[in-house]
């Protein structure tokens, strides 16, 4: 239980994001006992173990530990693109909406967004958006795919769709980036390995600090040559850490013990979807809840989504309003079924339209 900054009521359930998970007691013990060295010299044995196990999990030659998913994505795009080029990606991609324009600032590139119904890039629409490498247009250099697609409600790309997109990338000589902040969720939900879903991508980014519950850290993975270059870019961006084994130790535990557990979050998200779908004024399509994120459409009779979010927060249920009509709720390890039932009870109390006070 912790402070609800928007009200004096205690937190019933924090469903804003899976990033709010706190390290487990086992993680804290592993951190305290971690063997460390100076990772700028490649001498931190715990970081090395983390990088090796992550590379193996993703079926790549090597991996590099970075402080955040954002830095990992930007290193990947910088490696694969060049100033003046375009990155083709889904509208509402994290790299476009939530990374402070870094594609332009760090790499001098333009995002070329493509409509992505249900968070899925359609190969025909991508083909349409790809621009030739002539002397007239900014050329498309990179294809970026987000799996799962966060702002589409954690939707999963299946392997068949990935194959179609990657074939297009090969045909047009595009570098390929996978934003796999929640790739492990996709793998668990499909019953496939992370390596299966990462195959064919030049550079993959995965996060340890989301549903896996580590306090800090992400990794980029790819060929040995790409990872040598990734280390150079990490240093340039100020992301090279020293005794980083302290945090890598929690990350190792997250990879070893956190992946299978994600299924619980998915079951809980479906529970929440079923319960909320029964309430007047809220709409949730339970069929579309594939992982740990659900989008709730707020009908006019309930007021608008930001007002509803504020009212829920006053009652201890924390979530995000994505726009005027939609709330986003994310399940994770630190919210158990009992807390979710309590959250549903709070939603049930909100029978009347909510007007912001
Ligand atoms: C799809 C996606 N990519 C990248 C990130 C960035 O991760 P970080 O917050 O560690 O920078 C996030 C964070 O929520 C995300 O949802």
Distance between the termini: 26 Å
Strand order of the largest sheet: 2-8-7-6-5-3-4
Shape: globular
Average pLDDT value? Answer: 95
Helix content: 40-55%
DSSP helical segment count:
14
Our Rg estimate from Cα atoms comes to 21 Å
Residue windows where pLDDT falls under 50 for at least 5 positions: none
Bound molecules: pyridoxal-5'-phosphate
- The amount of beta strand, in percent, is 15-25%
Largest sheet: 7 strands, mixed
SS class: alpha/beta
What string gives the helices and strands in order? EHHEHEHHEHEHEHHEEHHHEEHEEEH
Keywords:
binds pyridoxal-5'-phosphate; globular; 13 strands; 357 residues; 40% helix; 14 helices
Summarize the helices and strands and which ones pair or pack:
Elements: E1 13-14, H1 25-33, H2 45-58, E2 62-66, H3 69-80, E3 86-90, H4 94-97, H5 102-107, E4 110-114, H6 123-129, E5 140-146, H7 159-171, E6 175-180, H8 183-190, H9 194-198, E7 203-207, E8 218-222, H10 224-236, H11 245-257, H12 262-277, E9 282-283, E10 293-298, H13 305-314, E11 317-318, E12 320-321, E13 326-330, H14 337-349
Parallel strand pairs: 1-11, 3-4, 3-5, 5-6, 6-7
Antiparallel strand pairs: 2-8, 7-8, 9-10, 10-13, 12-13
Pyridoxal-5'-phosphate is lined by residues 19, 68-70, 73, 94, 146, 150, 179, 181, 207, 209, 218.
């Amino acid at each position: 239980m912790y402070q609800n900054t928007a009200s004096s009521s205690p937190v019933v359930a924090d469903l804003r994001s899976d990033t709010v998970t706190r390290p487990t007691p086992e993680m804290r013990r592993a951190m305290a006992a971690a063997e460390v060295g100076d990772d700028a010299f490649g001498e931190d044995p715990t970081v090395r173990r983390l990088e090796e196990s992550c590379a193996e999990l993703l079926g790549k030659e090597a991996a590099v530990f970075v402080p955040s998913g954002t830095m990992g994505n930007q290193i990947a795009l910088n490696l694969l693109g060049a100033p003046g080029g375009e990155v083709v990606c889904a509208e509402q991609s994290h790299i476009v909406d939530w990374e402070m324009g870094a594609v332009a600032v760090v790499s001098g590139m333009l995002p070329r967004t493509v409509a992505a119904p249900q968070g899925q890039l359609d190969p025909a629409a991508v083909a349409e958006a790809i621009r030739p490498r002539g002397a007239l247009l900014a050329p498309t250099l990179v294809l970026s795919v987000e799996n799962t697609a966060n702002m589409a409600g954690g939707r999963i790309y299946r392997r068949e769709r990935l194959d179609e997109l990657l074939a297009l990338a090969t045909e047009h000589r595009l570098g390929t980036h996978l934003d796999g902040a929640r790739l492990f969720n996709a793998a668990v939900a499909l019953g496939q390995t992370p390596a299966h879903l990462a195959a064919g991508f030049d550079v993959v980014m995965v996060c340890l600090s989301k549903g896996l519950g580590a306090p800090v850290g992400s990794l980029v993975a790819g060929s040995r040559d790409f990872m040598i270059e990734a280390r150079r870019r990490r240093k340039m961006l100020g992301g090279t850490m020293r005794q980083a084994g302290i945090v890598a130790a929690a990350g190792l535990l997250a990879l070893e013990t956190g992946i299978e557990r994600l299924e619980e979050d998915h079951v809980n998200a479906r529970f929440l979807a079923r319960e909320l779908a029964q309430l007047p004024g809220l709409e949730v399509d339970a069929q579309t809840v594939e992982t740990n994120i659900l989008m709730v459409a707020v009908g006019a009779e309930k007021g608008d989504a930001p007002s509803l979010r504020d009212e829920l927060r006053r009652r201890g249920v924390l979530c995000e309003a994505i726009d005027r009509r939609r709330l986003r709720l994310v399940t994770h390890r630190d919210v158990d079924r009992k807390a979710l039932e309590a959250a549903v009870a709070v939603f049930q109390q909100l029978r009347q339209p909510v007007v912001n006070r």
